[in-house]
Amino acid sequence: MKRIIIFLLSVLMISAADAQQIYYSQPDNRDGRNLNFEIIGKINGNYLIFKNTRSNYAISAYDMDMNELNRTDLKLLPDKTINVDFIAYPDFAWMVYQYQHRNIVYCKAVKINGEGKLLTEPVLLDTSEVRFFADKKIYSTIYSENKKQIMVFKIQKKNDRFKFTTLLFNDEMKLQHTSVINTDYQDKKYLFSDFLISDLGNFIFTAGNRSSSRDFIEQLSLLVKAPAEDTFHIQPLDLREKYIDEIKIKIDNLNTNFLLNSFYYTRKRGNTEGMFTAVIDEETNRLIAETFAKISDTLRMNLRDKGNEKTALNDFFIRDVVLKKNGGFLLMAEDFYTQSRYSPWNRWDYLYGSPYSYYSPYSYYSPYYYNYYGFNDWNNNSDTRYYYNNILVMNLDSAGKYEWTNVVRKSQYDDQTDNYLSYGLMITGGKLHFLFNENTRRRMILNDRTIKGDGEIDRTAPMHNLDRGFDFMPRYAKQVSASEIIIPCMYRNVICFALVKF
Questions:
Q1: CB of 21 within 8 A of CB of 465?
Q2: Cα–Cα distance between 400 and 407 in angstroms, integer?
């Protein structure tokens, strides 16, 4: 009997250790379904969320139980505010915003505290003259992993030339260096990746070259601008007569490397063959490793939900890359496609047929767009059905070779909107938590699948404290501490926020 009691106590202790606590914010009629928002982060123990409806801008501060402590109306933001970005620190945050007055676009920054209140007067960072109403962002803001390097940049196109203007700031928003660089550019033939900045202040991105506007990349170069230089160092990469699509860059600041990943193909518009990986030393710009890792037929069969093994990977897109201390990394790719009565789905149109496939000045661009929410698709009349299915998890070593692979199985679809589909990623306790909705008895239930360091998947029970009426949007979730994540949710046409503590 004593042994049974000890066993039950141990089970309860393990369950308590793995259990989650969920705290919901109270529904506020001001936060309707047309709300745009961004989860800023945890500042001075409070959770800050930026909110925007039409020309109304505010920051809400929540306590540890998601009770709203303060709602600060941002009256300094004009009606014609084009874009707002945030860089959050433990005790304050920078808000970088841009707006147009007459034919001038202004880019300014202001510091806010843990209640969302202003700590400083706005600081002018830069201006641009435009000949029209710039309803799309002119400036982009990026920052390093340690948040000591902040860059505001813009790209202007004229006569097949791109002019890069970069402004490098420190964490006190003091200007360190300004560069103006002109480069050649062929419209609809070049494809730029995300733009990133390292802890050392290096500004990096890739430029891909295609034979036509809807072909895969056949030539690739990494461009690096050192913090005090006014030129790009161009590092060509040998694709070995293979083809790739969109490049995902990850900066390994611990090992001072640049990591490039993409799916590769052996012929144009062919089937996905495997993963292309290139590792470049940040300090010397030297290529350390370049690998084309073919995906096995066994894994293809495991992934196949439709079609045959050859096409099993054609609808997978890289979503996340998580670095390891030894230079290796975990890569997550998700099976995603759409169906519409008006146009057939294909990967090439999705990647290269949209206006975001190449950088267009005065058009929307942000490397963080996936986590910024806005109901832009509720008025979609194209009768589109979205599918988000299995997640492929690959553990690769520092040279891009497979150590293990596994599949997080899920099957999701919805019509007209994909706000409740896909997944949110939480990294805690040496595990990866995949948070996603599953239909259970006509109700969407938030589930948690975890992967350990050896690749073993733990199918945990559904989340605790899942109140009825709250529909979660995990794809817009943001991890705000080592053990906390905020997940937006919908309650009776009002947007709320759920704090999940692991």
A1: yes
A2: 19
Pairing mode, if any, of strands 161-169 and 175-184?
A: antiparallel
Q: Identify whether the C-beta of residue 31 lies closer than 8 Å to the C-beta of residue 496.
A: yes
Query: Any idea which residue has 């790719």 for tokens?
Result: 333
Please give the residue that has the higher pLDDT: either 306 or 502.
502
Q: How many CB atoms neighbour CB 283 within 10 A?
A: 9
The Cα 61–Cα 336 span in angstroms is 35
Give the single-character DSSP code of 3.
H
As a whole number of angstroms, the distance between CA 201 and CA 338 comes to 39
Q: What pLDDT digit, counting tens, does each position of 107-124 carry?
A: 999 999 999 999 999 999
Interval 180-199: pLDDT, tens: 999 887 666 788 999 999 99
Sole residue written with tokens 């404290």: 465
**What are the pLDDT digits (tens) for 253-269?**
999 999 999 999 999 88
DSSP assigned state of 460: P
Mean pLDDT estimate for the chain: 87
Helical segments of 255-355, H only: 297-303, 347-352
CA distance 142 to 319: 19
For residue 22, list its beta bridge partners: 500
Longest dimension (CA), the chain: 84
